[in-house]
Amino acid sequence: MSAPLPGRAPLLRALVDICGPDFARVAGSVDTVAGRVASFVAAPATTDAVAATMLLAAERGLAVVPRGAGTKIDWGVPPPGVDLLLDTGRLAGIWHHRQAELTVEVGTGTPVRAVQAALALRGQRLAVDPPSREATIGGMLAVNESGPLRYRFDTPNEQVNHVSYVDLEGSASESDGEAGRPGIAEIDGLIVSANLRLQPLPAARRWVTAQVSTPLQVHTLVEETLAQHVEPSAIEVDLPAPPRGRSAEQPLGSLAVLVEGALTAVEERAGRLAKSLGNAVAVSEIAPRWWGRYPFGPGDVALRVSVPIGDLHAAVYALNDAISGPVPVRGSAGVGTVHAVLPGGLAPDQVEGVLDTVRSVLMARGGRAVIVSAPPDIARAVDMADIRDLF
């Protein structure tokens, strides 16, 4: 609890009246945000129930934090307090699927994977692939979480027609970023549902994977890939670091390119690209194991670097220099956005020093670097990314 709450029992009863006896409770030890345990958890099932919950929270001065699958709940600047976790699990479902118009309405608490599975039965998909495997639609949109497909289809929020939401005062509304309405990044409240644009499911997919050993080699292969005009859906890189405790050179990494479309065309484009990239290139129907996964875990300090693709190698070299050795880097070599894992055990001032060094290199290149995730003791002491900075 962020502060003493007067009338805990009446407040819990009010939440139970709104959400139902099985869907409002006192928070437990697992109901945390950035190391802080919440006071209550409520799971409303309708827009009206969300509005009533938000209104109650506003009247009682409660700090509300939405929670879907919780995969990114610790990202960004830690909230000053968390009194109420608003669970979106009951705000799930798929409706208004208009196949001919390539649109669908999805509840905020619906897992992205469940939506993809349902759409695949109709030969369609959301052109999104958030690396958080259990991500919900709402969680993905809240931080605009992009995966490899961003290269071809842009960010998830660019594929939204409009969203329905409830603001912090308990008022329900819609947003499409037009006619004076706020865009998703400006919404203060909870997204209840989203109307999303769809894409046909591709008939075939091939991954062309080449070995790489240095950031400069990644840069060269990306240029070659673009020169071949194979219409890739994604261009990703994985540069692992040496095993802990060793001072070896950086081990071999991978550059992987996804090609999608009709079978014959995909095989021709993938084969042509593989031939142009040289030796030690493989073409597969299966993605590399690291594809679409973050290189960091819950206890790591994760740095996101975004820079024009022509300068990505310079940014990675600057990061390695700041750490005095290679660090794991993974992400979109085609977009110029990657994540890196800083070594464990760094003090907050050392983390800030690394961030300042990388930012000084990126400043002249139109790039940026932010700390996305970190253990609570570090997150409260360093310049963390504001969630809105992730848009």
Any overview of this molecule?
- 27% of the residues lie in helices and 26% in strands.
- The chain is an alpha+beta fold.
- The chain folds into four domains: 8-87, Uridine Diphospho-n-acetylenolpyruvylglucosamine Reductase, domain 2, CATH 3.30.43; 100-200, Uridine Diphospho-n-acetylenolpyruvylglucosamine Reductase, domain 3, CATH 3.30.465.10; 202-293, Alpha-Beta Plaits, CATH 3.30.70; 297-391, Alpha-Beta Plaits (2-Layer Sandwich).
- An eight-stranded antiparallel beta sheet has the order 17-14-16-15-19-20-18-21.
- α1 packs antiparallel against α2, α6 packs antiparallel against α8 and α8 runs antiparallel to α9.
- The protein is globular and about 70 Å long.
- The chain starts with 7 loop residues before the first helix and ends in a 12-residue tail after the last helix.
Tell me which oligomeric state these chains represent.
single chain
Distance between the termini: 30 Å
Number of domains: 4
Tell me what the CATH architecture of the largest domain is. Answer: 2-Layer Sandwich
Q: Within the CATH hierarchy, at the fold level, what is the topology of the largest domain?
A: Uridine Diphospho-n-acetylenolpyruvylglucosamine Reductase, domain 3
Largest sheet: 8 strands, antiparallel
Number of strands: 21
- In what order do the strands lie side by side in the largest sheet? 17-14-16-15-19-20-18-21
Number of helices: 10
Helical content band: 25-40%
Radius of gyration (Å): 22 Å
Classified by CATH, the class of the largest domain is Alpha Beta
**Portion in beta strands:** 25-35%
Q: How does the overall form come out from the CA principal axes?
A: globular
Segments where pLDDT lies below 50 for 5+ residues? none
The overall average pLDDT, rounded, is 92
Which structural class do the helices and strands define? alpha+beta
